[in-house]
Amino acid sequence: YLSEREALSLRELSLAGAHRPRSLIRRLLKTFGRDLSKLGDESVTAELDLGDSRTLTLFGVNADAVAAAAEAVERLAEEEAAAAAAAAALNATTVAVPGTVKLECPVCFAPAGTEAATTLALCGHVYCTDCLDLQLASTTDVPLLCAAEGCGRPFHVAQDILDRAPSPAEREQLMRRLLGPALKSHVNLPASCLQFCPAPDCPGLLRDFKEAAVRESRCKVCRGTFCLDCQYFSHVGLTCETAKEIRANPDYGLQVCSDWLQQLLLVACLAFEAFRVVHRVCFDRLTLLQALRWADTKTEFMTKL
User: Among 86, 93, 141, 215, which has the highest number of CB atoms less than 10 A from its own CB?
Assistant: First the structure.
């Protein structure tokens, strides 16, 4: 997988800024299709980010094809810039009608007509229906925010997103697609008491009791118990630094475990002595398992002394 990623040729083009015409995104969608499938050959993949960055990412295994697709975008941008300059010169000589308001789509900056437009419930900005659908399909961040300059208000989940689904099945699919990013956004909040389970491919969550004396939690999905500080398997009795050294150096780990077992055996011996059992019996006749069993109940023995 890593070798395939390293072999990919990647180009990232900015679609915003003073050097780009405002209508470039609209022109891209009209020229190369809503999914940009007509941009380059089958070896080129195009991803359009309609967030604050407004970038177009082109990547593929064929470097020449990726470069050709990038050149096609640059040519289109130059053509659109020239057309926009000509339109601006024409508009400068046109007298505006008082009281009229020009509604522009925040994505493609085209005049948003009433027939194929959608008005957001919370902020009132008007989107081309195709542009809104494209933003919903390409955005993975939650909450979804209005792309209008200076706005940033969130979408209304029910009215702006779910109600646009043409069928109950697609509504359910859209809801499931949003749940993952929404959960991730909530877990990453500083005040959240949840953590994602660190076990590979486990979708579970761990409860993080921040004031607890023992910083560990058990996942109800994979049944593993993990340290909440170092995100590794529980290591009660050892610091995170010591546990990390043990994982990195097996010989050091054996030494730590040996010292720990000797301490347990010593506690077991003291417990036997409290019940008038000869010290050598502990070492000569008891198995390690029996000694550990006595050591696990050392608290009960010590309270009886």
Answer: 215
